[in-house]
Amino acid sequence: MADTILELMDVTVDFKGFLAVDAVSLSVGRGEVRTIIGPNGAGKSTLIDLITGKTRLKFGKIVFDGADITLRPPHEIAHAYGIGRKFQGPNTFFDMSVFDNLLLALRGSTGVGKSIFYRRTDDARGKIDDILRIIGLEDKKDTLVSALSYGEKQWVEIGMVLAQDAKLVILDEPTTGMTADETYKTGEMIRAMRKDRTIIVSEHDMDFVRQVAETVTVMNQGKILAEGTFEEIRQNPEVIRVYLKE
Amino acid sequence: MAILPIQLMNGLFAASVLLLVSIGMVVIFGNMNVVNLAHGEFIMAGAYTAWGLCELGLPFSLSVIGAFALTAILGALCERLVIKRFYARLEETLLATYAISVIMTQIARLLFSSMKKLVPLPVSGGLSIGSLVFPAYNFVVIAVAVFVVLFVCVLFYKTGLGKKIRAIRQNRQMAQCLGINTAVTDTISFGLGCGLAGLAGAIIAPLKIVYPAMGSAYLMDSFSTVVVGGVDSFVGTAMASGLISESTSVLGGFMSEIYAQIIVLIGIILVLRFRPNGLFSKEKR
Amino acid sequence: MKSIFKRVAAAVLIGAMLPGVSACGESDAGSADEIKIGLIYAHSGSAEMIESLSEKAALLAINEINDAGGINGKQLTAVSEDWESDEAKATEKAKKLYLQDGVNIILGTCLGTGTQAVRSVAEENGKLFIAPTAGSGEDESPNMIFTGGTTYTFTKELIPFMAEKFGNRVFCVGSDYYYPVRIEAQTKALIDQIGGELVGSAFLPMEATDCSAVITKIMQAKPDFVYANVVGSTTATFYQQMKEYGLDIPIASVITSEMDAITLGGEYISGSYSAFNWFASSENPLSVSFLENFEKAYGRDDMLKVNATITASYSSIYLIAEALKSANSQSTDDLKAALATAEVDTPQGMFSVDAENAYYAKNYAMIIEWNDQARPVTVFASENQLPAEPWPVLLFPNGKP
Amino acid sequence: MKKLSPRLKNIPRRATMNALLLVFILIYPLTTGLYQIDTMAKVIPLMIFALSADLLWGYTGIMSLGQAVPFGIGAYIAAISNNVSAGIPSYMRTYGITEVPAVFRPLTNPYLGTAFAILIPCLLSFMIGRLLLTGKVRGVFVSLITMALSNVLMLAVNNAQRFTGGSNGVNNVSRPSLFGHILSITENYYFVALIAALLFAVCAALTSTKFGKVLGAIRVNENRVAFIGYNVTSYKVFVYVFSSALAAIAGILYARTCGMVSPSLTGLRLSILVIIWIAVGGRGNLTGALFGCLLLNGMERIMAGIIGDAWEFVIGIILLLIVFCVPDGLIGTLLTARPGLKKKEAANG
Q1: CB of C213 within 8 A of CB of B11?
Q2: What ipTM describes this predicted complex?
Q3: In terms of CA atoms, which chain C residue is nearest residue B257?
Q4: Which residues form the domain of B23?
Q5: Pick from C216, C233, C237: which is nearest to B3 by CB?
Q6: Looking at the predicted structure, is the pLDDT value of residue C171 above 90?
Q7: Disulfide-capable partner of B15 in A28, B109, B242, B257 (CB 3.0 to 4.6 Å)?
């Protein structure tokens, strides 16, 4: 784990005096699955917004794969640097088919000119078929996303992140609203996709965390409270205090 | 003769007119998030109502109150029949309210056979301040504008109804859960907004000719004012109408009216672009 | 179920609207015993008020002519079209009249914008167009005649009259459209000629709702009189605010007419002056009987609004009828020749086309003062017909540019 | 069959509609007189204009209330170019202008004039787009700013009488000429129809590419598009400029067919009308925009003949009916089966 892919140095987000993220430093190694947990309002989502360029930080620096991505616009972070993100709750293009959703997310051809003259290659088709297989929606590829179940929509989103061919995938509460069965299936998907990617997951569901996690980071009130394996974290008295208090 | 004091005074008067025609939109656009393209037509309806009531022999002050009440009822009716189905759907609201504006204009044309009628000035003659003379009615308009802002502020910030309206704006579902009858509150606040537009129409009726298409001239003005003022703030809108009118008036004193208008419009565009929350709003998310 | 219902509804609505697209195209050149005259007047929009009455006046004249036996045994038939105060519609309607209805001569449009639109269609199709308004040079065309003469004719009478009566410092106000801008240029030249001074001028946006800034400028400039050519709803605002701001400066205009005066009321307009080719105070017996007939046909409210432009529509029909009678043909060339020599007695006096500037009718000039009933009182009326001056020598010393 | 998406299944139906429309336009002149042909030749540019607004609003979700700005500027430049290439227009002569003003000199060449009539609106839109469509200004504010812009333009055009003819507008604009021959009414009709058909084909091709899908994605979920790596602003600006080019071409053809331009062509009314045409026809499928424009323009003329100036009242009622009963528009409803229907079909099958 000596090879670091993402490094946050002393980043701070200031919402008019409220420090949603307060001087957080974090480093994630290449190929790691990192889980971020913490009570509501701990700053998990804000931290993810920061990395993907949605929220602008006040102080600090973010380095991704050797490049400084501090304050870059979202589309550049996604496209040029290869950070994919799944939002909390389904966030797809609901009046398009599953296939089109994945096609749009496919890496490359994001410029205006390229998209006009884009021709679908067999390669691309094969790639989408692979992803459909991973997310288990092969026989629904031409269905409009709006006609899918809640869990299926979440999977489409995971599929979109996969299609982006991102080096780093960030999943913001991917199992919200899923049945236990669906949650388990999602966990398996994440394990399947980790082989050549780094993954950051923010999550509430402890069973799920146990299923996927290698390293767990616990956040509270904008700060990092603890970091370690799932077992270490489970026995950390500080963490227990914060969660019990809730 | 010093020109600046006159211009400032004229600007204050113009600001009061602008404030009156815009304040209904603060309620409807700012608090209910409905883009009401029929706003001008409610102004027109108010002007015609005031004229009708004056013709019936009512004193002007009662006619104004009557115009407020009748247009408020008309607005509430529109909300019940049309608007309430389109909340949070910008495009449908635009189309529906445009349809309402066309229908209202045409009904007015049928009823009043398009003849321009004039409401007599309730007070005429000039009042002098120092060596300067201003029409007495200008002061009435200014006073009414101040009164209306105070009235609406008290209504919104000191009464239960106002609290309900603001609660719905902030979180509709939560408001419902707390037992607020959102449907009734919506109807009341839309009616209130339309009634305020009608009141403005009644107040400006003596200043100009009343005719079915008169409202369209006020639509753009009131949108600009409300947006510059910060959409949902009464005080902000008051300040914005002051700023817009004073700058048009003062600029207009030194150059062509047309150029003054163009410059102010471009200023408004820049404000919309760089301060979409308005010049005077404090709370920003 | 619901979406099936929606699709049926959509299909029904389309079905209901389709007939609209395939507009029926019957084109008839007219039967042998009728002569068609095209009328283009606005029934809605900014020109509605004046043009709906103008149309009534034109129809009144057509009825009178038909009742008196028509033209060489043929009846006049009016084909009316509404241009909705929209220039693009005006060209479309003019094309309809010329191309589809087989009309050779159109009367109508009192607004400059409409006049221009119809004129270019008349030129393109080689047909005739009569505008019942005054022109100002640049818009003349061999296919059209302004029966209201030229604006300069009236400005030329009004400015010296006012200057002599009140003094020669003038302030010029106008709505920001074609006419007032031309008039301002003419006024400036005229004032220079009589040794006066144009102390200021200002233009108001169309449909402006507040004139206080202009009035401030007038207060500053302290003119002897204001030459105001404001149109639409701004007219009322301007006259009223002048009084309310306590400015006791007389206002002169070649645009403010009976119609504005009645709308405004005597309280605000009394003591102001207007000039044009005709006012309701004319003592011409034909004028008196015209107003009586108009009142009989359309009621007193409408009669009180009759102004020079409306009367010109009435007179123009008589001019056209006279030309049709003497030409006894409907071809453009014959009619044009006949129009050039036709002379007819109308409420506005003897009506004829100016021989030198054949695009304009020769006109009389009248100056009136408004009384407290908002009615005109004649203070000056020219004895003879005055020539049209589309290119006043004062402004265009080398003649037509 | 089961696997076909509702969208795909409807492509033949849309093609049928387009073909019907094309046949109608081709045979229309054979069935009627010159006036009707000329009127229809005026409506066809408005259909192009509707296409331009549909790309912007229907596909991308940008509701501009200033779409008449590029239309009007295109029309004005084309009209002035046509006038100055034949000499000094009379409205300039009254100002003592004896030679073509320097700014208009390039316009004396008709080809350059046409080029400028397309390029200048595009350039303006590019600047407005860069300023406006950055994500900082959203939804209704874009509508309000564009509305204010069209107000500014209308005031300015009206005021610059010396160059634009003021309220009288620019008149005596001739129909387009090809190879030195000024087209007759019927020739012009087919010329305009040909250009409209070509532009429709371009739009249809454009929207069927990945680019078209990105536009749809931006309409539905602008944020998400950015996070999968698209520069939303440059897409929006591109569509805005492209639709301005279409609007400008529509304006040019309109001015040349109509024979005149006036300040009202730049105003708010036309911008609102085009939105209504699309709403009636259905957004986001091009065909709906064409039908909506044709239906409403046809109806307006027929009803004006039957009930006179009260036709606007009827338009208001129809608009309300549409918003209530068929919010997807007439054509849109005929074309798209909603997901609900799809499920039912699946259950049956």
Answers
A1: no
A2: 0.87
A3: C204
A4: 14-114+131-214
A5: C216
A6: yes
A7: B242
